[in-house]
């Protein structure tokens, strides 16, 4: 009979992801551009960290009881992370999701057994926004279900940011031997950027914090000009925001960049072709931001960003010639999809 205490559960493998040198962009910029391989988390994305952090916090507070249901409004990856964590720890999940997200993510959620409720995509100020609907649903289920329900509330739940402060930032510091000069990534909830920035700044206040923001998000204009104003649109999912969330509030963002799809999406294909990394559109935005920051800082710096998830979660967009052409984008010639 084996001693089960020496083996670890699935949730224990969230985090401690590798830091990968992105050779092509590093050589092109003269900087060491490193990508934290968050797609290697059990649920396939960086959002596993937020999911575990919020669930553990809810357990400590008594908001999530044994057998209770986790409810969340999400564009996809946080829902997948919550389903993975929930299944591992014994909690069912109900996910409220805008209906403009990729079918691949919806199917992935359902394959984990999550209940998915698709709702029309509307602005945050609308009471029918998916976040507001998920909060109301959590309150209803909490009153109806014997074990109750708990709303994750990832956008303003500081357990999201705190988990990154406790894990992602310290991991980057340790993996670079304290030599990291800058960290940059895109923002959805703001938890990843804010928590990582806090951890790195606490260790070295000179670390530069950058924001890579897709078009259609208001955050670039806010950090550059002081006004929440969105322009354009992006095919990237799960990033960008029209407001400063509680997680993001107070984060010292010193280098904001607005990244158009025409810059980020070709980088997705370059990462596949040159690095063997099949990553999603948000990673393209992140790497484009790291390249911009490298050129602004100059040669010889160590810049870290995130490789958020896999391109296979966005097959209907990233590998769809007709869809890309409708957005003024194109598949590279070497990518033969018939």
Contiguous low-pLDDT stretches (5 residues minimum) are none
Order of helices and strands: EHEHEHEHEHEHHEHEHEHHEHH
Strand order, main sheet: write it out.
Answer: 1-2-10-7-8-9
* Number of E-type strands: 10
Number of helices: 13
What structural category do the secondary elements indicate? Answer: alpha/beta
Overall geometry comes to globular
Question: What gap, in angstroms, lies between the N and C termini?
Answer: 53 Å
Provide mean pLDDT, rounded. 95
In oligomeric terms, what are we looking at? single chain
The description of the largest β-sheet is: 6 strands, mixed
β-strand percent reads 5-15%
Q: How large is the radius of gyration?
A: 19 Å
Give the helix level as a range of percent.
Answer: 40-55%
What's the layout of helices and strands?
Elements: E1 19-21, H1 23-29, E2 32-37, H2 47-61, E3 69-73, H3 77-89, E4 93-98, H4 103-111, E5 115-119, H5 130-144, E6 149-151, H6 158-166, H7 168-175, E7 182-185, H8 191-203, E8 208-214, H9 219-225, E9 255-259, H10 261-275, H11 281-297, E10 302-307, H12 315-318, H13 321-326
Parallel strand pairs: 2-10, 3-4, 3-6, 4-5, 7-8, 7-10, 8-9
Antiparallel strand pairs: 1-2
Helix pairs in contact: 2-3, 2-6, 6-8, 7-8, 10-11
Summarize the structure in words.
The chain is of the alpha/beta class and 338 residues long. Helix content is 41%, strand content 15%. It contains 13 helices and ten strands. The strands form two sheets. The protein has a six-stranded mixed beta sheet with strand order 1-2-10-7-8-9, sandwiched between helices. Strand 3 (69-73), helix 3 (77-89) and strand 4 form a beta-alpha-beta unit. Helix 2 packs across helix 3, helix 6 (158-166) packs across helix 8 (191-203) and helix 7 (168-175) crosses helix 8. The protein is globular, with a radius of gyration of 19 Å. The termini are far apart. The mean pLDDT is 95.
